[in-house]
Amino acid sequence: MRINIETAELQAFIAVARQSSFRAAAEGLFITQPALSRRIENLEQALQERLFDRTTRRVSLTPAGELFLVHAQAVMEELELAVKSVEQRMAQRREHVTVACVPSVANNLLPQVLKRYARSHANVRVRIIDESAADVLESVRKGEADFGVNFIGAQEAEIDFAELTRERYLAVMPTHHPLAAHASLNWKSLAGEKLVSVSSSSGNRSLIDNAFSRVPQRPVIQYETNHVAGAISLVAAGLGVALLPELAIRNAPYKGIVARPVTSPVLSRAMGLITLKGRVLKPAAATLAQALRDAISTRSGK
Fold this sequence. Notes:
- Belongs to the LysR transcriptional regulatory family.
- By secondary structure, the protein is an alpha/beta fold.
- It is built from eleven helices and twelve strands.
- A hairpin with a 4-residue loop joins β1 (52-54) and β2.
- α1 packs across α2 (22-29), α1 (7-19) packs across α3 (33-47) and α6 (110-120) packs across α11 (283-300).
- The mean pLDDT is 87.
């Protein structure tokens, strides 16, 4: 048998039972007394039981009403709990942020930023796409990431690129390397050195190749890796010198390496926050983006 009872009728019944008054219950529900009476009548018809004894002086529950009140209150409490659970679940599903960034940012900057961010956004789920510069750009372009931190994208028509800092490249070498005795190096001093380099598909590599194109005698790339971490490991093993962005080696967990700035000219890259043009970040993403801006600004001394 289909139960033809509306929640408004249950609310009306519970209100009258608690107030022992149709007038007070109607005022509490912000409806008229005739409307309240119709709800009670509909409920009694559905149950085929009288729920209240009504006199000119008082309203009281019948035995059937007392029995039904226990279950009606339980039903409304369960319904409220169900609604709140769904609201909380949907809120948690809505509160998520995807940030794309190059590995140097993901490894050396993002962890501390997220640690602080989690204190005020404990329920926000964060997905990190830590890939190459080209992949980071593509993630933002496709809408997979809310925003990215990258050193390419400034020339893309559909991308907004907000520069955060300029990151210089350093020559990384074993501590016993002859060039380690110098406070800084020029490009000519690297001529003839065996280099450890990231792969030719890397955005880092294109910047380095462009710089070496202006040097009469360029170093020999002896070892090539896909990731900066691999290059650092080879340098630590004494296999050569690597030109790497400063952020990538700032907190590198390796012993036996040193880094020296390279001048004449200084090689650097613009690190920026990239978003899809015209996209407005949701609050949780905007807060994380600002936290990254502040962290980079602090490290850069701005």
